[in-house]
């Protein structure tokens, strides 16, 4: 049950990611009271989490299992609770096992004020990376019901 995209996570980010033009995705994050850091503002770490999830979706579109190696966030503007961050992310390039992604977040609409930017290096892994390192009960649950796992289903294309 992923904290960023899982429906069952009461205070999770409930991110939904959609295919865009090229090797690119978009997503929206409604900033709830549970996501607070400073009073009335989003916690910056949760914004980085959202970037991790959105950029991490690119490799599922590319069908390359990969994990985050490095992730850098530029926090451009404070983001109040109750607003929606619109993300756009794309793959900038692939070199060997290394995938280079970038993303931006805008306030309240895809053409809204830019509030954050991020770039990341993801590293391709074999699927047994997850089986080897994950706690056994959750890994077994995925193996028993792979269709329950969002990333193992077909990519959600445009709504
Ligand atoms: C059968 C079971 C089925 C289960 C199926 C489930 C499906 C999965 C479902 C859903 C999963 C996705 C969910 C999305 C979540 C969002 C993404 C996350 O948050 S992921 C979690 C956070 N990240 C980690 O936990 C990584 C921990 N780190 C590692 O495991 C290793 O360090 C790893 C794999 C990243 C690299 O280790 P190496 O030993 O494989 O490879 P080396 O040689 O060290 O690196 C490869 C290349 O990358 C560069 N590199 C690696 N880390 C770097 C860094 N931090 N900065 C710069 N370069 C880096 C290296 O310099 C090297 O480059 P050169 O090929 O020599 O040019």
Automatic annotation (TrEMBL):
Pfam families: 4HBT. One of its GO terms (cellular component) is membrane. One of its GO terms (biological process) is fatty acid metabolic process. The keyword Metal-binding does not apply. GO terms for molecular function: hydrolase activity. It comes from the Bacteria. Keywords: Apoptosis, Cell membrane, Cell projection, Cytoplasm, Fatty acid metabolism, Hydrolase, Lipid metabolism, Membrane, Transit peptide. It is found in: Cell projection, Ruffle membrane; Cytoplasm; Membrane. It comes from Actinocrinis puniceicyclus. It is a peripheral membrane protein. Its EC number is 3.1.2.2. Belongs to the THEM4/THEM5 thioesterase family. This is Acyl-coenzyme A thioesterase THEM4. Residues 40-95 form the Thioesterase domain. It catalyses: tetradecanoyl-CoA + H2O = tetradecanoate + CoA + H(+); hexadecanoyl-CoA + H2O = hexadecanoate + CoA + H(+); decanoyl-CoA + H2O = decanoate + CoA + H(+); (5Z,8Z,11Z,14Z)-eicosatetraenoyl-CoA + H2O = (5Z,8Z,11Z,14Z)-eicosatetraenoate + CoA + H(+).
